[in-house]
Give the backbone structure.
Amino acid sequence: MREKVGTMKKYVRIYYLYFIQYMKSRLIYKTDFVLGATAQLISMVVSLAFLTLVFTQIESLQGWTFNEMLFLAGFGGTVIFAQNVFFFNIIRVGEEYIIKGKMDRFLLRPLNPLFQVYADDVHDNNIPKVIANLALIFYAGYQIGLTPDLLMITYAAFSMVSGMLVAASIYLLFSSTAFWTGTSRNAVWLIFRLSNFRKYPIDIFALAIQGLLVTLVPLAFASFFPASFILGKEGFEAWKLITPFVGPVFFYIAYRFWKLGLSNYSSTGS
Amino acid sequence: MKLKKYLSFTKVGLREGFQYRSDALSGIGATMISLVLFYFIWKAISASGELAQPFSVIISYVALARVIDNATSADLENWIGDRVRKGTIVNELKKPISLKKQLYFYQLGKSSFKMIVRGIPALIIGILFLNVGVPGLINSFYFIISMFLTLNLAIFLSYTTSMIVFWTKVGWSLRMTRSMVAGLFSGAMIPLYLVPDNIRALFNLTPFPSMVDGPISIYQGTAENVFSVFGIQLMWLVILGLLSEMLWRKAKKKLTVQGG
């Protein structure tokens, strides 16, 4: 036990050192940060504008009011983009690390290779988007008149952490295919496209898609299930209850897949 | 003979498309995903209220919008961004053909590839399953012309924003902003006849509606005057052409080639 705590401490310290190093290099590209954050915020504004335009035509979307849709978008957005800040670098594992042979360097060091990939980059331009999505949660919650008790707040907090792990596990699973294909970009591009499904109540989709959203791309756990539980929507009861606990499970499965890929890795020799 | 020189860039673009097969595959996948997503979103929206048109009419617009949007995407921002940052843009500038023409013909090849592998399959699916229908001979002909103009608009627009890269040094955020805004204003996300009049008037002050909504109105035969659709597309081509030229003249003075 003490040994484990010691290892954890070591990793936290090293992450901190990586972080400082990264931030120093980051200062050179101030415009990249500013423009990146602006672009991210604009994409959020556009999807909210789309929702607003749709709601000029209808009162509610299959029982979901405008504010409830905002809450759903805000919750899922907070989870995904907070996850992006720390776990985004994995999507470059094919192009940036395997093909270019940088993976070799990670394997030589006495640190977990996956940790090193994560620690190599902080996707800081997502931070403004996280804040904006949090604001959306509070705004929508206030409009709806939510008064969560302590239990609900605990549920929300655990679900968010669990959701982050779920999102991280999706990126990890699909990026790990790069050990066989040499590219992770395309697999992840598809995930980006699929991630738009999180903004809608999953019962609007065909059953096959709902199945996809709780298994291979389990985004429903990062967005729809927790949001609908907090909003007191009916249906999917068992799914909502396991939501705060599934994150570690999905991440473990994805991690096993990563390990399998890693054992299959042979250097490109460049 | 000059044309042959230019078309060699088109060939490069086309060949790149065929070369990176997994890119093409994921492009097709992305197109299908967006088709499925929009199908269910609009089905749910239609089921939730009285819209101006029944679902079968709306979905044919939405499917066509997906086809056009996916078939005509251009990405010159990242192309220039990469080269500006690495300093290799100097190689392009040394060539005896202006950067604008190089990029135009290159992107023409890349986009033609997208048109074939992403646009046509999506259109067939739309015709078979989503009530898209097939226009008459004359409207088909007009539609092809307006699609060609849209393709040009997409390239010109991407080229115009990519000029800004000479100041910012990064391309991806500009591209993201450009394509998000275009998606909302053009009709690619929401049929413009469902947008309230005063907001639509605002959209019409931008080139975006002429890129997606325009060709759709020709395809569906709802355009009041086909030639005014062409006219608006041509007008925006001229405006974007002038704007990008202006930006390029400023950029040229600003350009510093890094490293070397």
Summary: Chain B has a mean pLDDT of 89. Chain B has one domain: 17-258.
